[in-house]
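I hope you will forgive my troubling you with a question about protein structure. I am sending you one protein, given as its amino acid sequence and as whole-number tokens for its backbone shapes. Thank you for your consideration; the sequence and its tokens are set out here:
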Amino acid sequence: MAKFVVVALVVGLVLWLMFGRRGRAGSPSPTPRRRGPEDMITCAHCGVHLPRSEALVAAGRAYCSEAHRDAGPRVDG
């Protein structure tokens, strides 16, 4: 009988630690929800596609990184 009480207490403690702390001030906030689909654009230097919010824009052209923005648009030839 004593074993059953100890096992029940341990299971109860584990469940309380897993689920009992939700909603308290110290708990992490829930993950933010994603917004709807985002426009994809092409880097003017390398041609990679990336979300508009992550692009760096210079002189009306979008780039995927500072290095490509500094290098400028790709010149074919």
